[in-house]
Amino acid sequence: MRKILLVVILGLGVAAASSLSRYSNPVAAGSSQTTAVFDSDGKMKLPVGYRRWVFIGAPLTPNALNNGKANFPEYHHVYVEQKNLDAYLKTGVFPEGMVIVKELTRVLNPTFPDGSRAEPSGRGYFNGEYNGMDVTVKDSKRFAATNGWGFFNFGHHPLPYAESAKEASAAECAGCHIAYVAKTRRQDQVNQRGDAELESESMMAYQVRLAIGVLLMAATAVSPQSGDKGPVFTNDGSLVLPSGFRSWVFIGGPITPNGLNDGDAPFPEFHSVYIERENLRYYQKNGKFPEGTVLVKELSLAQVGKHPDGSLDSASGRGYFPSTLNGLDVMVKDSKRYSKTHDWGFFTFGHHAEPYESAAKESSQCAYCHIANVAKTDMVWIQYYPLLKSKID
Asked: What residue spans define the domains of the chain?
């Protein structure tokens, strides 16, 4: 059930938004705990702070792999609140008032016919500018006509998004969900249907494939309260595995699949990169990272498709979808400790499934590539991460 349910409300919807301060008479959705707020006309206000929620996945269905007409040609960055994720993982049921945000980012400046581009890390797809936001809300009373879920489109365009959005018509989003995945809402019906049967249905197959990757990431998400601030070292100078990083701010997730790199990409996985919020804010203000900054890059395998480039077909289009977690690399800024490598230390906690190594020694192998290519931008490929270049939170 959990493999299917989490993505029932992720698939279709569109757009994005900006300020909440101009509306009066806000009305909360079904639960007093919800972050969904509606104005007196029933329009939903743009959620705030969602980039500080738990990031659970970023599938990609680029235009170039879909005859130039992908329904969603961007990266789909999906976020849920920690409390709702915890409730779902505990009960297998989405709580009333749950909000799921899907923010879109364009693919960075394609140079190949398939929409990819070549970078030092390999040929693949990299995050460009923000380009829209869709939101889904669970409220069984308000949205009884659409199986308890409301769908909202805040615009498919660059920032700023719309400040509020009316509920999308059933023809836009809800109708597709009702037609293909309404039955997955009931435990007894799910128990009667195996994955093999589900794979025979196009939309359901997409939901299952996407959910596998998303839930494997979400199931291991940690509490925002856990973890130490800044890097922690052992007596011999090894870096202790950072904790709590999945509740830091997600800034981007490039992918350089094996199929586009002669079967041997240096990093064939999705690269999900996280930074602590205070360090993000410092960079946005000053154009450099403060001492003690920790950047975490967690890798997740792409699900294997039948196409030579490794992509697979789904109801949302042909593209790349996350699968199991497969490694962790970390950068630490400390100008005294790492003066020989432009103030940054590089660490690998294993390129394999969890559990990762509990501590890692510094590795100079990564530093040389960064020095050769991005020494002038504080050793980070900032062009891959639109949040660094913006002033948004």
From this structure: 2-389
pLDDT tens per residue, range 89-110: 899 889 999 999 999 999 999 9
Residue found under tokens 């990272």 = 289
Measured between alpha carbons, how far is 301 from 321 in angstroms, rounded to an integer?
8
- Three-state SS at 41: coil
Tens-place pLDDT, residues 332-344? 999 999 999 999 9
| Angle between helices 202-218 and 174-181 in degrees, nearest 10 | 100
Q: In the predicted model, is pLDDT for residue 198 greater than 50?
A: no
Decide the pairing of beta strands 44-45 and 294-302. unpaired
Is residue 378 classed as helix, strand or coil in its secondary structure? coil
Domain at 2-389, CATH from 3.40.50.150, 3.50.70.20, 3.30.2290.10, 3.40.47.10? 3.50.70.20
What pTM, to 2 d.p., does this model score?
0.82
50 SS3 class: helix
Q: Is the bond leading into 355 cis (omega within 30 degrees of zero)?
A: yes
